[in-house]
Amino acid sequence: MYQTINRTTGRAEAASRGLPFTRWADAMPLCAKAIREKRMPEEADLADMLDMKYLIIRHKRLAEAMQLARRALQRNRDFAFAYYVLALPGEDDVAGLRAAKRGLKCPATEESLFLRTQFLQRAVEMAADLGAQILLGGPPDEDDQRHGVATALFLGAMEDAEQFLAEAPPDNRHRPKVLYYYTLLQIAFEDEISPNLHEIKSTLDALRTAEDFRTWLTSSPPPNTQLRLAQQNVVKHYRDAQEEWADVLSASQDAESQQGTARATGNEYVKWLHRIDFAEFACLGPGGANPAHWRTEKPKLYAWKECNVELYRCAWCRTAALGLLQCSACGGPRYCDATCQKRDWKAHKTTCPGRKN
Ligand SMILES: [Zn+2]
Ligand SMILES: [Zn+2]
């Protein structure tokens, strides 16, 4: 903003410089208008970016910015900034997660560390929250796909957290949040975490460093968000919980091996995954069709990475969701919708067993 100091009050006041705006932000819609008046199709994204940014930072009108983003994507389906807007915290995490995952596929995202870390941190947050919402809905029923989706959501959150932590610079302000999620996911889904948590020591060390860094940068302690408190509680009480539940866990594991069904235990999702019949998804997974080989793997979540969670993830954008559509030619890969299927066809048509020549 152009400002002068009022000598009487000592306050800063807006000063006119003969421009049609006094705050810099208010120049954005004027720039967008000027760009549109040039009628250069290749600059349409630029004008939309300015308008979206203006709606968000100056007016907090996120819903309108999102509408503009959706319209812009009809013109350019690789418009990374439009996905960035759609992945901001809004009302719909399902749509937001899909936007973050599609944003990660945009060519511009490969060039931009800012966009990449932004999409990744939002994807971790939304996928973990959506997975938790499913779990809060109750234990799995027979053929309950929701729990398959929850597993795929958590696995996706772990993968995206790992990529984020590998790439985000130490001053990235989302680092602590991603590490809170990552600790909880590791404790919940990695097998055989000892009572002293030494298997995830590097994550806990990284979190301490990230929090110290934030404290130093902002001169204030990390805010006690619900997520931070949850993470601290789980870490603090993990040993006690292990001891308290040890008998129940081992009894229920014995029962499962007799009945072949999963019950609500720490490893319920992994156990539940055992029941899925891979035969019909033979075209998926590492090295093609050999489900028998996958079953012999140690029942650790990571061992399932390449096979059954694929049933609940879009083969193109990798979003985990209910109600994915199958390739109608082979019934193999799943997609969010026709958009993702079309984007994947170039790759899938070379291996699709049902493809007509
Ligand atoms: Zn998709
Ligand atoms: Zn196919």
Structure description:
The chain is mainly alpha-helical and 357 residues long. Among the domains are: 25-92; 314-349, no CATH class. It contains 14 helices and four strands. It has helices at 27-37, 44-59, 62-75, 80-86, 93-104, 107-111, 113-136, 145-167, 175-189, 201-218, 226-259, 268-273, 291-295, 338-348, and strands at residues 3-5, 12-14, 325-326, 334-335. The strands form two sheets. A two-stranded antiparallel ribbon has the order 1-2. A two-stranded antiparallel sheet has the order 3-4. Helix 1 packs antiparallel against helix 2 (44-59), helix 7 crosses helix 9 and helix 9 packs antiparallel against helix 10. The longest helix has 34 residues, at 226-259. The radius of gyration is 24 Å and the shape is flat. It binds zinc ion (2 copies). The site of one zinc ion (ZN) has 7 residues, from loops.
Short characterization:
By secondary structure, the protein is mainly α. It has helices at 27-37, 44-59, 62-75, 80-86, 93-104, 107-111, 113-136, 145-167, 175-189, 201-218, 226-259, 268-273, 291-295, 338-348, and strands spanning 3-5, 12-14, 325-326, 334-335.
> Outline, from the CA principal axes?
flat
Let me know the number of strands: 4
Q: Would you list the SSEs in sequence order as H and E? A: EEHHHHHHHHHHHHHEEH
Distinct small molecules bound, one entry per kind: zinc ion
Helix/strand/pairing class, anyone? mainly alpha
Largest sheet: 2 strands, antiparallel
What spatial order of strands do you see in the largest sheet? 1-2
> Which spans of ≥5 residues are poorly predicted at pLDDT below 50?
259-307
Question: What value does the average pLDDT take?
Answer: 81
Radius of gyration: 24 Å
Percentage beta strand: under 5%
The total count of helices amounts to 14
